[in-house]
Predict the structure.
Amino acid sequence: MTETKRVRSIARRVNHSFLLRALFLLLLANAMAAGLAFTLHLLTFEKATLGPQWTVKMERELSAGDPANWISTLNSTIYTIVDGTGTEHTLALGAYFRDLGAAVGTGIAVQIPFIILAYVGFRRHTGNLLRPLRTMAATAQELSTIQFDERKYHQLEDAIDSLSVQSPGARISMGNTELMGLETAVNNLIGRMHESYRQQTRFVSDASHELRTPIAVIRGYADLLARWGKDDAQVMAESVEAIQQEADNMQRLVEQLLFLARGDSGRNTFSPAPLDLAALVQEAYEEYLLIDKTHRYRLKADGPLPISGDEAMLKQALRILTDNAAKYSPKDSIITLSCQENGKGEACLSVQDNGAGIPGEDLPHIFERFYRADPARARGQGGGTGLGLAIAKWIVDRHNGYFDVFSREGVGTRITVCLPAKEFKDTPAPAAES
Ligand code: ATP
Ligand code: MG
């Protein structure tokens, strides 16, 4: 017998036993009531017939007609009593039995619907009680019917074995409906692994490409030095300066690569602490006033703006944005650093310039590693590697924040970073506006 049938048969048995018990109790109660009524009827007769002599010892007899026919027996039943003086008194019970039978029949007819209602309620109750058992039984049955076909699993193993993460379109398709879910999961995993592999190889090739240029320049100047530099002071000075500059570029690039590689492997130390974002923006503003005399800096800060963050990292992100603003905007143009709370209660900082702007088609890519909207222009303007915004994004993501970029070609760019706000007890002094 199947598991579900077994549970159904248990339910049926429980319901039947309830019904039988209810019917038995109904009959018993009616029989007791009829017996009581009958006894009372006889006692009433005795008392009415004998009056004050009722307590006197008497003889009683219940006589019936033909015992083979129970209807005639009931009809002809006579109750006889003999009083103290020896006089017989009789009571014909035929009519009484008919009335009693009719009364009991009506009583049972009235009670039956209640029994049916109680039975229906009980069935529903048992159904609810046994539902978890039914579910378990159905699951057990399903499991017991699953056929384990070892061959199919071996085929799947072979198909997985033959997959290579290097072949982009590698997918398993065995056309087996039972293993479809597993196939899809493996295919999705392969897709993700392939994407990550592609990003890794692209990152490595972009990184090598970026390192090749300074190495070639250094090599070129070293050759020049070897051939002429010893005698020509000007060639010597020019070569040393170029080598120093390229070495700086290389060092910067290697540091950026290290930061991203550590970020990818979760090895960047991130130490969040309560800090005031407005104060941080003000510090950066003061630094840029000192180090960059070629632009006019402005500060707009409605401090304090309490947040929880890694101060060094946030400063680094702010420098990346400000460096870009300086790099991609003309001399003497205005660069505004600002800090304010937005309508959603988040703490936001933004850097705005009146520079070249970013073309619309480049906007979706500016946070990608090594992406440069205009490589020629960037190289000419300080030799950007296209890693700055990727690093800033990593930092902002780590703080559960987001970017909002607004840029128009020939007009300027405003990049805003919004971070979740956090109250802290010792409120620092408000940052000044300038
Ligand atoms: P790096 O910062 O690594 O030295 P980069 O500045 O070229 O190099 P990102 O900071 O990642 O790289 O910026 C990516 C690209 O986005 C830049 O090459 C530039 O084309 C564009 N960009 C970023 N900020 C601005 C800006 N304020 N104005 C105009 N273009 C910008
Ligand atoms: Mg940059």
Q: What stands out?
A: The radius of gyration is 50 Å.
